[in-house]
Amino acid sequence: MKFDVKKAVLVEGLTKVSKVIAAKSTLPILQGILMEVTEQEIKLTGSDTNETISHCIPVDGENVKVYETGKTVLQKQVVDIVKKSRKEITFTLDGFTTTIRSGKGEFDLNGLDPEEYPKFPKVDLEKPTLVFNGNQFKDFIKKTAFAASDKDTRPVLKGVFCDIQGDCIKLVATDSHRLSRVTHKTSNSADIQLVVPAKSLENAIKLFDLDYEVEVFADNGQLLAFRNGPTIYLTRLIEGNYPETSRLIPSDFKANMRINRKEFLSGLEQIYDIANASDGNTKGTAKLHVNGEACLSSHQAQTGKGRIDIPYESLEGEDGFTISFAVKYAIDSLKALECEEVDFKYTDSMRPFLLSPSSDTSDLEEVQLILPVRTIES
Amino acid sequence: MKFDVKKAVLVEGLTKVSKVIAAKSTLPILQGILMEVTEQEIKLTGSDTNETISHCIPVDGENVKVYETGKTVLQKQVVDIVKKSRKEITFTLDGFTTTIRSGKGEFDLNGLDPEEYPKFPKVDLEKPTLVFNGNQFKDFIKKTAFAASDKDTRPVLKGVFCDIQGDCIKLVATDSHRLSRVTHKTSNSADIQLVVPAKSLENAIKLFDLDYEVEVFADNGQLLAFRNGPTIYLTRLIEGNYPETSRLIPSDFKANMRINRKEFLSGLEQIYDIANASDGNTKGTAKLHVNGEACLSSHQAQTGKGRIDIPYESLEGEDGFTISFAVKYAIDSLKALECEEVDFKYTDSMRPFLLSPSSDTSDLEEVQLILPVRTIES
Question: Could you provide one GO biological process annotation from this protein's UniProt record (chains A, B) (predicted)?
Answer without folding.
Answer: DNA strand elongation involved in DNA replication
